[in-house]
Amino acid sequence: xxxxxxxxxxxxxxxxxxxxxxxxxxxxxxxxxxxxDPKRFEAELEQYITIHASLTPQEASKFFPVYRQMxxxxxxxxxxxxxxHFVNPADEKGCAEAIRRQDELDIxxxxxxxxxxxxxxxxxxxxxxxxxxxxxxxxxxxxxxRARQWHQNHPKHVKR
Length: 160
Hints:
It comes from Segatella sinensis. With 160 residues, this protein is an all-alpha fold.
């Protein structure tokens, strides 16, 4: 159950990153939100994880290349999954195929997560890996909250 929630948070964070990256903001400079910068987001996430999981510089230098590798693979799965969001098959067979493929992608992402969590435990103690997972979840929750609050304060920028 916890892993499913973690997967959902990762998927949602990738979705938020994508939405923020694709959204163009109009208006004056006070209400204009700067465009989404994936490199900045990644740097802020890594800094947050480093602080909240108490990673030493040596641990961080070994951990984050492997973490980035996992995220790259997860993003490719999510990109395929996201494409199904816009597909509406006309027949039952097509719908069934879409459901099965999305289920396969969910499982593939969970297996990737499991594989990389095991790799992380070769780099860091399990206690720090757990702190990393919790810090990542908290960072994404906070990012969603900030995005939601910004959109609530700037309703003309909400796309429907």
